[in-house]
Amino acid sequence: MATDTVVSRGYLAPVDGVRGRVRATFDRCAYVAVDGGPALVLHADGRDHTPTSLCPATWPPASSAVAVGDAVCGRAGHLKVGDLVLDVRGARVWRPAGSPVVSTTTVSDEQGIGAVHYLALRAANRRTGGLVFALERALAARDAERVTDGVASLVGRGPGLTPSGDDVLVGMLAVLHRLGSAGGGSHAQLLRPAAAAHLDRTGDISAHYLGLAVAGHFGERLVALCDALSGGDRVDVTVAAAAVVATGATSGTDALLGVVSGLRLIAATRAAGIAA
Amino acid sequence: MTTAHRVVANAYKDSVALLAISSKLLALDGITAASVVMATPTNVENLVDAGLADGLRASPSDLVVAVAGDGDAACEAALAAAGELLAERPADDREGAAEQPPPSIALAAMRDPSLNLALVSVPGDYAAAEALKAVKLGMSVMIFSDNVPVAQELEIKRAADERDLIVMGPDCGTAIVNGIPLGFANVVRRGPIGVVGASGTGTQEVTARIHELGSGVSQAIGTGGHDLTEAIGAISMLRGMRWLEDDPDTTVVVLVSKPPHPSVAARVLAQAARMATPVVSIFLGADPGDAPAGGILAAGSLAQAADMAVALAEGRPAERVALDMGDEARTRLDDIVRGTAPEQRFVRGIFSGGTFCFEAQLVLRAGGLGAWSNTPVAGNSTLADIAASEEHTILDMGDDAFTQGRPHPMIDPGPRDERLALEAADPAVAVLLVDVVLGYGSTLDPVSGLVAVLERARSAASDEGRRLAAIVHVCGTSADPQDRAGVIARLRGAGALVAVTNAEAASWAAYVATELAARGAVA
Fold this sequence. Notes:
The complex is a heterodimer. Chain A is of the alpha/beta class. Chain A has helices at about 110-115, 120-130, 130-140, 145-155, 165-180, 185-195, 205-215, 220-230, 235-245, 250-275, and strands at about 1-10, 20-25, 30-35, 40-45, 55, 70-75, 80, 85, 90-95. Chain A has 2 domains: about 1-95, no CATH class; about 115-270, no CATH class. The N and C termini of chain A lie far apart (about 65 Å). The model of chain A has no long low-confidence stretch (mean pLDDT about 90). Chain B is of the alpha/beta class. The longest helix of chain B has 21 residues, at about 500-520. Helix content of chain B is about 40%, strand content about 20%. In chain B, strands 10-9-11-12-13 form a 5-stranded parallel β-sheet, with helices on both faces. Chain B has a 5-stranded parallel β-sheet with strand order 17-14-18-19-20, sandwiched between helices. In chain B, strands 1-3-2 form a 3-stranded antiparallel β-sheet, with helices on both faces. The interface between A and B is large, with 43 and 36 residues.
């Protein structure tokens, strides 16, 4: 029986009372399907927590320690994953700060991000085939039916373990939620139920992330980007956007496409407010 | 066209692997389309619409491999290949697989959150932004780049200071952090003496001599040459001093700089006076009226700062001993003076190290000898044309005027050697004064060209009835990769007088010039 200490964890990661099984293992992480709750994500400690991360001191563990199908149970601050027992009691908890206060002059950096990540965003556009713009127009028009259609066209679309369309929606939800006070809130209210209604149209791991996004929970890299955008510091935004882009093969740029789309919506909302 | 597909139930591969497999399938002979995606309803619909997966049934958590190609055999081969590829471990799990270097500071930080120092060496226009990114990621920064505007330097340094970090630079050529040489730095043993230096070769002279005297360096923190200006206010030097005072491995601190702005000097010295750790300062060319008080020991030269620091570290009194030429050196120099032609009077100093150039001018001025330079000290004159020396001339060939578009002479000493050859051919020249800087970053062969120039110059001068003094200071340690002892032996073989310190070399040059001037006056 191998043992290790969890050094950090996401703020929604359950431990005590958890029952489930290892759903998938990758070179950098493993997913645990939890009965009646969100999946747990096991990975190395870093700056890329998800809300349900558990980050052991050593990851990946010995190859025999965790395998697909292993039973998982949690009790008294410990999580048993196959032959591995993780002590979670002293883990530092990653928790995003509350939604940032957005000054009146700082939102909307979509042109800056677009300039820096032009090629990546163009590639992401190709993967979703213009559907993001259709959804964006529907949200701007506050047309609930077209929003539902737009979300349906994106969920589960494209390459990747988390398909491109799902990643776009997570990025869009992140910026609309985190910058809600700047004008994203009403769009997020429209987008959330449409996305929730289509969670069964994607794989369970991607549905896990999209479901968290619908509930207002996002990974550390996206949170950092949204918070940088609220601060309006170009360097902060550049650093945070680069981190998002580095996620997975296409997931990062797809999410960034969603962020940029959300920023356009916020900018338009603010412009309309000013004009009014 | 033939199509085929295969569903792999409840299979998960990360996105990078899925894309890589798609690309590999597409590269197979006879395959015209390939897709490896999660079998979500939308993806299935798209595959069916594209004619790639007729009759496909799968759940969203399945993987589907769909291919199109020239015939059943090609498609079946592709599906078989996909099966093998899906069963493989990721490439970076394999033993011995090389990790690609991170393409940005942010990605490096994500890969290893324990990173706490970034070295920035990009064109000056971009250096500030990169440095600021690193600072905001929680890293101290060494900025090797120059040409960073002062306003940006101030912004970066303030941002770092607010986070208890330090910015070494811009234009910071030398540092030794936890025993690791960064930029141009010498191989020195670790020991009790901490150095905060606003001049690169000045720091190299101090740290190398500390090593050669048998002691060692805990940390050598560079600040960049602008740090002690009024605009920057010594933000980095003050931070470095605080860190060294808190460092249990540091028992003596040495401060190295060209003359700071008076208000900044006062601030630095005030902090130094409050430190429990003894401080030796060498502010080259500072007004003697600004001599520090409060127990701070002011050295008269770079090398002397090292001498005093080592004495303190070893529990001995740190005395400011006057430079003693010694009988052997005096005898050799007198011999050279006797062999010079009547028209030979001038010193030509050709330096790679800017601080060595600065210190040599000070030593000459202390001997009553003014000089021309491209980087004159107070009282000296600026050369109208840097390509043409006048009378006593002391050049910094590492200055921007000489290095734009070409390597620094510590990396490529060729231009330095060419200039020396020119000076040696001037019948009015009596002394060639040169520095050779060893250590990491410097060329591994710093003297082959120099030795050839000196041998030719000596021969040509002899043919013309002249005698040239070649005085060389070798800055470096016996542990440096260039074989210090071998370098010195080759220089001596070429007839050069090799001084232990830069100040000593300059004092020898000043002695010869003074003797020649006296001879001319008598004549």
